[in-house]
Amino acid sequence: MKLQIHPDTVARLTRELAQAGRREIGGVLVGEHLDRNTFRIADLSVQRHGGDNACFVRRPAHHRGFLDAFFASTGDAYDRFNYLGEWHSHPSFSTEPSGTDLLQMHEIVNDGPSAPPFAILLIVRLGAERRLVLSAFAFRGDTMEPATLLVAPRPEDDPAKRPRGWLSRWFGRPETKPVIRLI
Predict the structure, then answer these.
(1) Residues 48, 84: Cα–Cα separation, whole Å
(2) For site-directed labelling of 56, which of 48, 81, 97, 123 has its Cα 20 to 30 A away?
(3) What is the pLDDT of residues 110-122, one digit of tens each?
(4) How far apart are CA 6 and CA 12, in angstroms?
(5) Which CATH number describes the domain made up of 2-182?
């Protein structure tokens, strides 16, 4: 499985993790199907509560509005744009899935007829000098495999692109290379 992530998403995760400090945060990943086993992370929700220094509990109701807005913005084209999986931080631990992470992801992909065919787990943390450290894993049935992450620019015609305010359009910052370490 290959996943593209945009520099603006990397910057957003870095800001959110810096703000959260040693508290775990997380959310839902949504994306676009590009090619066989290749997906683009179009957006992610952020839940800033429900975590402590060693645990994060996602609250599904918190993310319902985010998912509804994403599907509306992409014309409800579920075959192209859909739920990709989950993300959360491990500020005090490695970016490898914990036993709890493994159980929860296996529950998602084995949840009966409404289960997705696969789900991605993205685990992130800030390393030295605020470098974003990311690991991605694909879950299908009872299997888990590492996913390849690639940083790629956001397409100009991206229907999931967040609108920019007049201030950022007028004084827009030049795009900078993200500072990340992919595991």
Answers:
(1) 20
(2) 81
(3) 999 989 999 999 9
(4) 10
(5) 3.40.140.10
